[in-house]
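Narrative of activities, Objective 1.

The group set out to show that a structural description can be obtained from nothing but a protein's sequence at a throughput compatible with the screening campaign. Below is one input-output pair from the validation batch, recorded exactly as produced.
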Amino acid sequence: MTTSERTWLKDPIAVLAEGAERGVVVEDGRITELVGKGAEPSHPVHKVFDASRHVVTPGLVNTHHHMFQTLTRAHPAAINKELFPWLQALFPIWAKNVNPDNLRLATRLALTELLISGCTTASDHQYLFPPGLDAAMDIQAEEAGKLGVRMTLTRGALNLTTEEGGNADQGAVQDTDVILADCERVIGRYHDRSEGAMLQVALAPCAPFNVTKRLMVETAALAERCGCRLHTHLGETRDENDYCMEHFGYRPVDYLEECGWLNDRVWLAHGIHFNDEEVMRLGRHGVGVSHCPTSNMVLASGQCRTKELEAAGSPVGLGVDGSASNDNSNLMEGVRHALMINRLTYNAESVTHFDAFRWATEGSARCLGRDDIGAIAVGKQADMALYTLDELRFSGAGDPLAALVLCGAYKADRVMVKGDWRVEDGVPVGMDLAKLRYEHGEAAKAFLESL
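Output recorded for this entry:
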């Protein structure tokens, strides 16, 4: 399909949109019409795609990931640990082994997994820059372009080692001036602020416990000057709160404010351990939160206060988080986990599958500062995921949209980005999955040999 053709995705089983019972019309990479019950497209179409086997959702949007970590899934040194000991086990392994070649494979694998799960836009918090990995952002831009996935290149950073009071490995940190110079380079090369952009840039010092205050302050100023967003981990564990009290004399949200980060340019990863006053303050300033339900459960970090944050005014999105704390890159699975953990946190009546979908689509888009994606609506970018209900797990399901979440959909049959099919019959267009699995698996062996 070429983007200039007017194409009707006709008669789906269900669509996650109002007034689209008979499908969606796409042209020039945008959604141009929703076809309601009993209606026909208002203008002639060039092509018809028979969607009668499909349930259609907006393309999912991933707001937090660490793609290099696909190389250390279920790593023997790190399983059955909480965040700080988990990081202590893995930082030296990552610093020693991550290089341009295996980062490329890790990024390709993670983006492929995301795309197959129905994700059309991804943000990767790439904070690891050991010697020789200066071109990490360029590698990720190239891989996203090859797959046709939208991406926010999130230029992370580490500059505070264990010897200096942080927890980053000496082999993974960079000089502050080097970091800032590369941030400017990456913004200048890749940050596209136009509607429908395929690449944008965010700046992302890793966390209060492994970057300096100077880096936090100067990245905030750079982001404001260049019109890009800011991202960091915050409030993930009680250990982080204790660290901030010991080193700064106050809690993480106070530190965020002192660094100039309390504004609507910012979205935070995890955002679990906030008190009532902090929730209200974050909401008042429009600070977004990337809810990472799977990782939060694996590492026993805690339960994000999603409903209170949204009520206060914070955009809430979803992230798969790192593929060594998840341990996969399937955002549709993350939607299911979000529903489950939030029902446990609140109750079954007030957290619905529509809430989980909203976090993964509109909420995530808001976290990334985008209003052109995240919904099936006229004028939005034509990013959609199409799932079938053919598997045994769906037999007997009455509500098709609820079934995707409750019955455990994990793989899209078709995925469209900017009006182009990027997944057909469950496989990314032009991708040799067996080859990718072999090459990535071979690269990952070095990380086990580091034990």
